[in-house]
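User: quick one, fold this
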Amino acid sequence: MPRSNYNINNRTMRTETMNQSPPHHSKTLFEKDGVSLVATILSSSSTSDDDDHDGIILTLYLHRHTEKNVINPTMISLLVQALHVIDTHPLLSHTNNKSLIITGIDHDDLKICKFFGNGLDLEWMMKASNNQSNTNGGAAAAAAVSAATKNENPTSRMIEMFNSQVLAKILTLPFRTVAAINGHCIGAGLFLALACDYRFMRTERGYIQWPEARLGMRLTKGFAELSKDKISDYAVLREGLLTAKRYTSREALAAGIIDGEYPLEELYSAAFRFAVEGLPESSDNPLEYFDPKAYTEMKMEIWCTSYRALKFGKVSDLPHSRI
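Assistant:
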């Protein structure tokens, strides 16, 4: 059964209503190398005029399934391009009434949706550090991160770009953001989900994990501050970080890491409905004098420490430093 810390659709969350949604049509605004941005345009009228709508739900799809949606320079570049489209596309720049969903769900083939994000690309990190030893992937990647904390190298530049241009951006977008976690959500994949305002996760398969302790890595400042800002329970933070515990959806919900759990077949529609209800002009809870600049600034104020660490921090910053 679906479970959530939020009540959707006028205080109820009945499974039979999950597939209902307002009349809409969709447009693909960006599509490249397995990453796409789709705008679902809600409209209660019969007109196809995109300027006459009741809100726009954006979905950022991560479909680099053969790579398990790992974070590497290619993925980061694609995410940056998609986020740029959100900032500049004419359809979006003329309205404040929008929300964003980030997911790895493939509506055409749910069976391949095993990963939301499988962390940093360890293979790329090994190659970038010119590690030709027989050391196993995790240890070699840990060595690459360790080296990155001491001086600038390809791994440090990759992490800093991910932090400053992707995570800091998503953290402070001027509208509701929802991660629909369709499978394993590990390391950098988890940080991508934590950058969103809300997190829904599939049941039955997949887990959430901070793997750094298992891999012999430190977090680095940006990832550490984001974790602390988004996980309010110290006991959960301690358990997750210091034991590298793997959380099922039920455990993650109980721990407050996620806000709801659903069978995979219902996950996207649950996230979609929640995104609709978060539109600034929502009929249920309209924000009458909504200002996107003030909304972004409010997010900066709420998560100031993690925003500063992500936006301006360096991988080489000392563990005890203040950004």
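User: anything notable?
Assistant: Residues 8-19 have pLDDT under 50 and may be disordered.
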